[in-house]
Amino acid sequence: MKITKIETHVCHARMRNWVFVKVLTDQPGLYGWGEATLEWHTRAVVGAIEDLSELVVGEDPTRIEHLWQMMYRQHFWHGHGIIRSTAIAGIDLALWDIAGKVSNLPCHKLWGGPVRDYIRTYCHLGGGRLEDFYETAEDDAKRFADLARNAVAEGFTAFKCMAVPPTMPIEGLKPIRTAEAAVSAMREAVGESIDIMVDCHARPSPAMGLKFGKALDPFGLYFFEEPCWPESVDGLAMINAAITTPVATGERVTHLSAFRELFEKRACEICQLDITHCGGFTEARRIAALADAHRIALAPHNPQGPVSTAASLEFGFSQPGYIICETVHADVPWRNDVVSEGFTVEKNGRIVRPNQRPGLGIEINEAEVAKHPFQQELPQRVFYKDGSVGDW
């Protein structure tokens, strides 16, 4: 069996373009689907996949580890940059999809079978142009409370929000009180039986992240995400040690050795590796084993398209430390038109039962994808009041 071709199929999805990867073989009807979505870098990722295809076309698709090593180590530049690791991930996911189809088993059964009966999912209240929020603390609080009630009405028992505004390296009480008011309103709106997560989007400095963390600690958050830049490992460790809320990070970390430093310094309690950015299942399974050795939980980052979601769920059914899955369910009206999925979602509680189809259990409708061709993503820019550049 040989790989004959690697295709990319780009589908516009408003804030991002989904990059679907199709690996074809010389066996009639045998191919695999992956995803390599990376917002604001769509064309770069598509080009990287074309470059990587030179290494793997003509090879046996079932030699997944061997091909992963080729993609990571060859062409001289190691594959831990975000563009390259995302391209590797798209191909790697498709290879595992093929492996499942060859074995006639879902991917999670290739790795020892399901370790749980279902996976809980959560939604994200934020997104889009974040500067639309934070008009006044009172307005923000009401808006977040309404969004929280809507999420619970849709069946979610957990949700995430961006209740922390962009801040300069040091600011006073105003942004802290804004975040406090928003989280307080959400907690009051949904009660203590619903889990609330706050995503800082790595905007604060370590000092401001610590201020936000201490201010929000009394609200019993499920986790506190990216309270400072992921490169600031010591800053993350400082915050994690100072608050009771578990710190979560990892979506922008792309390789095993970087996760090793995070875990060794106890910079988080929850690992948010992104399967589409860290090199696919092959590398994600190594990261998960390292996290398990440190008793660090898994809650993968997953705001992308439907192949990414299927992959995140397959991964979750095989990993003991996996606690919850981020999902997107209403980003574009055509999401369900482009994909057929093997897993089932129970709307009461938004829990997912295991996929029973081979591989990832999904099929992409290429004709529907073609109806939504690439469009340039909207620029997302943040500037502080003095005109200096902030973090989106």
Q: Please, could you describe this protein's structure?
A:
The chain has 392 residues and is α/β, with parallel strands linked by helices. It has two domains: 103 residues, Enolase-like, N-terminal domain (Enolase-like, domain 1, 2-Layer Sandwich); 251 residues, TIM Barrel (Alpha-Beta Barrel). Helix content is 38%, strand content 17%. It has 13 helices and 15 strands. The strands form three sheets. Strands 4, 5, 6, 7, 8, 9, 10, 11, 13 and 14 form a ten-stranded mixed β-sheet that branches. It has a three-stranded antiparallel β-sheet with strand order 1-2-3. Strands 12-15 form a two-stranded antiparallel sheet. Helix 9 packs parallel to helix 10. It starts with a strand and ends in a 22-residue tail after the last helix. The relative contact order is 0.15. About 2% of the residues have low confidence.
SSE string, helices as H and strands as E? EEEHHHHEHEHEHEHEHEHEHEHEEEEH
Shape: globular
Mean pLDDT: 94
Count of separate DSSP helical elements: 13
Largest sheet: 10 strands, mixed
- The helix content is 25-40%
Could you say which structural class the secondary elements and strand pairing correspond to? alpha/beta
Distance from N terminus to C terminus (CA atoms, Å) equals: 45 Å
Contiguous uncertain segments of 5+ residues? 127-134
Q: What is the CATH level 1 assignment of the largest domain?
A: Alpha Beta
CATH homologous superfamily identity of the largest domain: Enolase-like C-terminal domain
Radius of gyration: 20 Å
DSSP summary, beta strand count: 15
Strand content: 15-25%
Which oligomerization state do the chains in this entry correspond to?
single chain
Write down the domain tally: 2
